[in-house]
Structures are given as structure tokens and as C-alpha cells.
Design a protein that fits this description.
2 domains, six-stranded antiparallel beta sheet, globular, mainly beta, 12% helix, Immunoglobulin-like, 353 residues
């Protein structure tokens, strides 16, 4: 009987601790504006994308599915007050005019005026000197099985001494692929030309972030990992290295920290990451995204997966390619650029660097 009394007393105590919240309001971001763009010391054109929030990815603005914002007045303003107007190439996609090039050491900001009169502006930021890649190379690692053969990549940024530096690095891989040609028609029918060698650009949306904290003046390693040896075709790795402000580094670092949250009890609590853009005319207008300003260096590394490979490793690869149907022999095609089953198919050539 005493146990029942204790049980009901505890139940009464717990229920009495409930507090009804009547004025709770959720924040609706359906009208938030997403801005994405950059400017650097390399030749333009530079672009700015504008859209209302939808399936927004902070790592790849090209994947936005929100409603594009059209007919906006988009301008770049430098530290001397000179304004350069962008033009709208397609809905929500704005480009700088031909011949416009930003200058190292100059500061720039973005200003956007929407049709409804709202003005969005970024903070001024200076274009730092472009970083230098101290190393960008690869080595082949042989193994007993093809699945374990690898091309190890190495890259590093040469840091300048006595200056607090922050680096933002984008990576884009370009993989060459081979397809199988169909059986030629019987004579006297002409044999069509078979274009079986094309390129694809696998999606990569996570940047590399580096700082010279406690490593001032040293070469800062970029952890690029390894490439597989699943065929003998070429593989090109492109790095776009930016020297950015501390604010830009902090923004992307916070995004990366949130992306890596696994739900553990010691993880940080997710929170909205604020960029460097705000609405001057309406403080309640949510503006997401970041306008990046920085010195840029772009380099490509061609990984040759044919020349210099040991003969026994090459023979193992030939069997591996055929056994695992790497070249889609069950889907023969005359022209590889028409292969819709290949994700991110670029066709015969790479885009310009």
C-alpha cells in the first residue's frame, strides 16, 4: 500500500511540473532570399545567383530549386565608389560585363536592388594576393588486388609569413570514361563513327578550409585522399584555391561543423549561419548565402592511369574492367556524349580552366 501511495505522489509531482506555452511562434523562411556569388583576381565574368529559399544547399548554389529573382539591379562597388552593373543572362543568374576584372588589393561589395525596392548589400572585403600551391602531385600505389590499387594525391598551399591567412579551396574532379561501341552493321552499309571516350564531372560540394594558426609560413597540406584504379582512362583534379578573409573562413567553417553533426549528445546545437549579406531597407528580411571576395589560383593535375603502370597491375586491370562491366558492354552506344546513364556527362572535352 505504501508503494502505491509513493507511486501516485510521484506521478502527481511530475504532472504538476508541466507548463503550457501559448505564445510559441515558428520562424517561416519561405520568403528568405538566397544570394550566392564571388569575385576574384582572375578574369571574369563573375556571377551572382538570386532566388527565394527552396531546397537550398549552402555548398552548391547551382542546385537551388527556389523561385529565381528576376529583373534585379545587381552592382559591384569598389573601395573608390566605382559601380559596375551586372546583366541578367538567365532567370536569377547575373553576370559581370565583358572586360571587367577585379584588382588585387582593392575592396569590393555587392549591392542588389529588387523590384519591390528592397536593397541587399554585402560588407566590403579586400581581394588578397592569390595563394600559391607549393605541391600538387600523385603517386601510384600497387597492391595484390585492383580494388586496393590507388593513386595517392598530395597538395599544399605555400603560406606567407607574418600574416594571418585563411584559405578556402574548391575541388572539381573530371573523370574520363570509355564506353563500348555497338557491333558494326554488315557490309556494304557504312560503319558509323564511334566516339566512345568522354568526360564526366562527379559532384563534390565540400570545400577544404585551411588556416596558418600555429603553422605560420609553412606549407599547409590539403588532404585530397586517393583515386581508384578502375580503368586506364585519365583523371583530372582541379583545385581553386582562394585567400579569403577571416569572416569568410568562419562562415564556411561553421557550415562544415553543422554538416558533420551526427546527432550525438556532445554535438553542437544546429543554428542558422549568418553570412555577410543583409537587407538594408527591411531588417526583418532573411538573407542567406555569402558573397565571396578573395585572391584565387586555379590549377589542374592530370593523373595518367595508363603510362608508368607495372605490367602485372595493368593485366589485372584488364580482367577487372571486363569482369565488372566498367565500360557498360551491355549498353553499347555510338556516341558517348549521348549516354544519359552517365551522371554529369560533359561530352568530349573539359571546360576551360
Amino acid at each position: 500500500m505504501r508503494h502505491l501511495i509513493l507511486f501516485f505522489s510521484a506521478l502527481l509531482f511530475l504532472t504538476s511540473c508541466e507548463t503550457e506555452i501559448e505564445d510559441f511562434k515558428t520562424e517561416n523562411l519561405s520568403s528568405a532570399i538566397v544570394v550566392s556569388g564571388e569575385i576574384s583576381n582572375v578574369d571574369g565574368p563573375y556571377n551572382v545567383r538570386l532566388n527565394y529559399v527552396g531546397a537550398y544547399s549552402p555548398y552548391d548554389a547551382t542546385l537551388f530549386s527556389g523561385q529565381p529573382i528576376t529583373d534585379a539591379n545587381v552592382r559591384i562597388i569598389d573601395g573608390n565608389g566605382k559601380e559596375t552593373a551586372y546583366y541578367e543572362k538567365s532567370k536569377g543568374y547575373y553576370l559581370s560585363p565583358p572586360g571587367f576584372k577585379a584588382v588585387t588589393g582593392q575592396k569590393y561589395k555587392l549591392r542588389i536592388r529588387l523590384l519591390d525596392g528592397k536593397i541587399i548589400e554585402s560588407a566590403f572585403s579586400t581581394i588578397n594576393p592569390a595563394p600559391e600551391l607549393a605541391e600538387f602531385s600523385y603517386t601510384f600505389k600497387d597492391a595484390a588486388k585492383v580494388e586496393n590499387m590507388r593513386f595517392s594525391l598530395k597538395a599544399s598551399v605555400k603560406d606567407t609569413k607574418d600574416v594571418e591567412n585563411y584559405y578556402f579551396i574548391k575541388r572539381q574532379d573530371f573523370r574520363q570514361f570509355l564506353l563500348t561501341c555497338p557491333t558494326p552493321p554488315p557490309p556494304p552499309a557504312p560503319v558509323p563513327v564511334c566516339n566512345c571516350l568522354c568526360w564526366q564531372a562527379p559532384l563534390n560540394t565540400q570545400p577544404y578550409l585551411l588556416t596558418d594558426f600555429l603553422q605560420n609560413g609553412k606549407n599547409l597540406a590539403i588532404e585530397l585522399g586517393q583515386l581508384p584504379y578502375e580503368d586506364l582512362t585519365e583523371w583530372v583534379v582541379q583545385l581553386d584555391a582562394y585567400s579569403v578573409s577571416k569572416e569568410a573562413y568562419t562562415y564556411w567553417k561553421r557550415l562544415e561543423d553543422q554538416r558533420q553533426i551526427s546527432g550525438g549528445i556532445f554535438d553542437k546545437v544546429p543554428a542558422q549561419v549568418i553570412g555577410n549579406l543583409k537587407c538594408l531597407t527591411d531588417p526583418s528580411q532573411e538573407v542567406l548565402g555569402y558573397f565571396m571576395v578573395g585572391g584565387k589560383t586555379a590549377r589542374r593535375l592530370k593523373v595518367d592511369r595508363f603510362n608508368g603502370i607495372p605490367a602485372d597491375a595493368y593485366q589485372k586491370l584488364l580482367f577487372y574492367v571486363d569482369f565488372n562491366n566498367i565500360r557498360y558492354k551491355d549498353i553499347p552506344i555510338w556516341d558517348c556524349k549521348d549516354a544519359a546513364f552517365i551522371n554529369y556527362n560533359l561530352g568530349y572535352s573539359l571546360p576551360p580552366l
